[in-house]
Amino acid sequence: MKSIFDFLIRKFVKDHKNVNSQLVRQSYGTLGGNVGIIINSSILVLEIVIGLFLNSIAITADAFHNLTDALSSLVTIFSFKLANRPADDKHPFGYGRIEYITALLFSGAILVVGFEFLRSSFLRVLHPVNIPFNKVSFICMLCAIPLQVFLNRFTNYIGDVIDSSALKASALESFTDILVLSMVTFSLLITRFTTFPIDGYIGVIVSLFIFHSGIELGREMLGTLIGKAPEKEFVEKLKNSVISYKYICGVHDLVIHNYGPGRYMASLHAEVPSNISIMELHDVIDQAEKEIGKRMNVYLSIHMDPINTDSPEIMGLKEEVYKKIKVIKGIVSIHDFRVVGGSEEKTILFDVVLDKTSFKDNEEKDLQAQIQDIIFSINPSYRSIITFDREFY
């Protein structure tokens, strides 16, 4: 089946390998939407005819479900065109988040269909109707299942290729369609062997599947719109890319904003040796921003943090402090380690990175005292100034 998918992509998506291009992403979205319209419209017509012919609430309700899917495919095409609008004064990072809004609308559509399906099915349970088995109708319903499977796998495939939340959401919706269609077809088969009014009960079960899919999709998209943490793989790739440049020996205070699939804005602090020319360091940082930004499709801003790397005493003290405080649960790392003062009394300044869940803001004072006691154990003449940072990924 993958070969068919690749054929369709090559046929209808120009420059299909350049998935970072917004025009290419729009072509993928249009292709997915058109395939969805064709398949869902075909099943819609088929189910309306069979549902009315057999007087089946399950089949008729699923027909209207496919009408919603066909309209959703139109929304997919429309959303990709909107998301591809260029940035302007009011939206300097473009309109990429429209894809997430579209996926959220999908979840709402799924919940509406689930509610209507549940209501109709419950009424059919209260007022059962015998559904006559019809061989031709059963075969037609059975043939519709592979069409839905094809749509699900194709939409999910191109959604993965361009990392589109809207297409992945559409694929999830089509997966519920497979469940619904399979259950409805099964209920039609059962009518051949029993007079029990299974039509309504099958409808109730299927509607619960639909509700679950809608809730999960809505929760995922709401989290993205509110601002969930970025993918760990993206974070690690970005950090490793920055550290690979000459003189950069550490990265911290990384913040990533998502403005739509493939549209990121990131800022971070890069630790660099304090004994290197500022102009030379600036050239390295400028090169890193441009090259990594282009390679990872991210607007990258790097702040330089000079650190003392040629003092064995300071480096040894930093290692000793970190070794003793890292045993405290919730401490991730330390950075910006500096030592000021004379030989008898010194002040150690550094930032401590805490994970997202271990400490509340009102607990930081006690944590600071705990760290100070550890530093006292190293040398009673040392005092400390500690700043706490939080991970945003």
UniProtKB/TrEMBL annotation:
Cell compartment(s), UniProt: Membrane
Coiled-coil regions listed: none
Transmembrane in keyword set: yes
Bilayer topology: Multi-pass membrane protein
Database matches in Gene3D superfamilies: Cation efflux protein transmembrane domain, Cation efflux protein, cytoplasmic domain
The UniProt record lists the keyword Nuclease: no
Domain of life, source organism: Bacteria
Cation efflux protein transmembrane domain location: 35-225
UniProt keyword list: Membrane, Transmembrane, Transmembrane helix, Transport
GO cellular component: membrane
Residue ranges annotated for the Cation efflux protein cytoplasmic domain, each copy included: 230-306
InterPro entries: Cation_efflux, Cation_efflux_CTD, Cation_efflux_CTD_sf, Cation_efflux_TM, Cation_efflux_TMD_sf, CDF_Transporter
Sequence similarity: Belongs to the cation diffusion facilitator (CDF) transporter (TC 2.A.4) family.
Protein name, per record: Ferrous-iron efflux pump FieF
Gene: fieF_3
